[in-house]
Specification:
The chain is α+β, with helices and mostly antiparallel strands. The chain has three helices and twelve strands. A six-stranded mixed β-sheet has the order 7-4-9-2-1-12, with helices on one face. A six-stranded antiparallel β-sheet has the order 3-8-5-6-11-10, with no helix packed on it. β1 and β2 form a beta hairpin. The termini are far apart.
Amino acid sequence: MATEAGLVEHRRDKVGYVHKIILKKKYRRRTKRPAAPLVLMPLQRLFLSCRDVFQGPGTVPAPTDVQRLCHILDGMMPEDVGLSRDLQFFKQSAVKGIPRVTTTTIYKCDNFSLCIFFLPATAVIPLHNHPGMTVFSKLLVGTMHIKAYDWVDPANSDDSVSPSQLRLARLKANNVFKAPCNTSVLYPTSGGNIHEFTAITPCAVLDVLGPPYSQEDGRDCSYYKDTPYNAFSNGETEVAEEEGERYGWLEEIEMPKDSEMDGIEYLGPQVIETSS
């Protein structure tokens, strides 16, 4: 009997031991999994980076900051700003009359602006400058011809030159670009600060301007017409004949009447102005 009692007691101990283990397993606290990192949309990443990079008038982004913005822009697609290649606008081969450029502003502050330009086929944004500005242009949709110049003597400011006076400029670009392609960058005195866009097919261009145009702050837009260098000489600057095609004479003109743009409301993804 004693033996049987011992076995029973032993079994109870076993059962109790197992029961404790089950209870421990049943009520064991679960460890919390770390939250997945927040993935920012490309447009929001661009906005936040621009807010860090552009420090206001009179400043130019550092090379590392230029690479930072280019890296974001190079990866952006039309869908990132609410566009689709299937839109009827991008399927039109021609429009009646003189095609007009349309623009929409995504965001604008004193230090930078984000905007999109829509160019129907054959539409032109004539030669114009970007005084004191750094501009990133990303061709999102279409095929476009770009011609760009820099002043040979950038120290000779526009304010000291008569609008009718010819100035020598160096041709920096005269090429056709097709989306998707890398972002182009121009600076206050280099990189093709004076450029012209001609749409071969319907195009959409995302522009980042830092700082944006401001007539009050002396950053008004000026327009130009170009003449081949070999057409004549002003008697002051001579360029070797074999290099003549790399230069041109620019003359400031009034804003062409047919270059006025239509503004529309931006209806794509919005940027969120978080506290810095």
